[in-house]
Automatic annotation (TrEMBL):
Pfam families: PNPOx_N. PANTHER family: 5'-PHOSPHATE OXIDASE PUTATIVE DOMAIN-CONTAINING PROTEIN-RELATED. This is Pyridoxamine 5'-phosphate oxidase family protein. It comes from Candidatus Thalassospirochaeta sargassi. Residues 18-113 form the Pyridoxamine 5'-phosphate oxidase N-terminal domain. Gene3D superfamilies: Electron Transport, Fmn-binding Protein, Chain A.
């Protein structure tokens, strides 16, 4: 069974996340949950405090522990990232773009997390496909990007 369905249509441009989505993803006080899916179709969710949006067409998450998550990301490129702070919440579906172990973004994230005693083994980059408002309010479930 092929669980690695490409969420992106061929030839589609990279989605640009709305400013409010990027703002919440980059808010250090927001809770961010990354959900990956195993080759067997079993979802696995983890809180990833390092998740961020370094640009409007990219989400990044540092690999600090992530044994199950990393295995899933290598087997199935489809993920969701949920960011929540108070009543505000956005869910972004995305696909794995690459895993970095060097380069400017990786080195910057590695240095920042080292200040907190964390060792970064890799940096996963995701390409957003679509985003939804998941906040508690009348726009819950509304596609915004």
């Amino acid at each position: 069974m092929d669980n690695n369905i490409n969420l992106k249509e061929n030839g589609e441009d990279t989605m640009k996340m709305a400013k409010e989505v990027m703002s919440l993803l980059n808010d250090q006080e927001a809770v961010k949950v990354l959900t990956s899916v195993s080759a067997d179709g079993i979802p696995h969710s983890v809180v990833v405090g390092s998740a961020m949006a370094p640009e409007e067409g990219m989400i990044a998450a540092a690999e600090i522990l992530m044994q199950t998550t990393s295995k899933n990301l290598a087997e199935n490129s489809n993920v969701t990232v949920l960011a929540v702070k108070g009543m505000e919440s956005y869910q972004v579906t995305a696909t794995v773009k690459e895993r970095q172990t060097e380069g400017p973004l990786f080195e910057n994230v590695k240095a920042e997390l080292a200040k907190h005693g964390m060792t970064v083994r890799g940096l996963w980059l995701f390409e957003p496909v679509e985003a939804f408002n998941q906040g508690a309010g009348p726009d819950a479930g509304k596609k915004i990007s």
